Amino acid sequence: MTFEDWARTELPGLLRFATALCGSRHLAEEISQDMLINAHRRWDHIQQTDRPDAYLRRMLVNEFLSWRRKWSRFVPKPEIWIAETNADHAETVTARDELISQLGRLPRRQRAVLALRYYGGLNDAEIAETLRCSTSTVRAHASRALATLRVELTATTSTTDQRRTAQTGANHAY
């Protein structure tokens, strides 16, 4: 398979993965572009590996983890675009935006583990191989990330519920 054939078929999925990993479509495009330049140079080697998709995914994750060296002045904001948004489901959209915001505050390795696990569908061994660490490190990153999200989202939810209760009480006073 030529590089161009691979790019036509597999690039959209890899770009979606990069967007979930980065939390920003623009940063995902930048990282993917840099990864593609490197992949094109090494395509003969990559094509001969057992799993070129895993190799390229690892390249993408490594590029994401080292983005600070290249874009020291760029601070990404989580802005994953949701394809289907209905105005009638404002609470769902608000909750999703809050989750995306909280994901953006996680350390890069924790975010990478969650993106590889829940978006990429990889198991702990595959994530460990991609990040070049042990499976226990992957589980530790996932555990810490999920605990942080639970605490942050619980605090946000209780604040929102308190505001909603206060507004409901104020509306009933009239």
TrEMBL record:
Gene3D superfamilies reported for this sequence: 1.10.1740.10, Winged helix-like DNA-binding domain superfamily/Winged helix DNA-binding domain
UniProt cross-references to Pfam families, sorted A to Z? Sigma70_r2, Sigma70_r4_2
Q: Work out whether the entry's keyword set contains DNA damage.
A: no
The residues covered by the RNA polymerase sigma-70 region domain are 8-72
Task: Name the InterPro entries on file.
Answer: RNA_pol_sigma-70-like, RNA_pol_sigma-70_dom, RNA_pol_sigma70_r2, RNA_pol_sigma70_r4_t2, RNA_pol_sigma_r2, RNA_pol_sigma_r3/r4-like, WH-like_DNA-bd_sf
The residues covered by the RNA polymerase sigma factor 70 region 4 type domain are 97-149
Tell me yes or no: is Metal-binding among this UniProt entry's keywords.
Answer: no
The protein's UniProt keywords, in alphabetical order, are:
DNA-binding, Sigma factor, Transcription, Transcription regulation
Which PANTHER family is this protein grouped with? Answer: ECF RNA POLYMERASE SIGMA FACTOR SIGM (PTHR43133:SF50), RNA POLYMERASE ECF-TYPE SIGMA FACTO (PTHR43133)
Family that this chain belongs to? Belongs to the sigma-70 factor family. ECF subfamily.
Name this protein carries in UniProt: SigE family RNA polymerase sigma factor
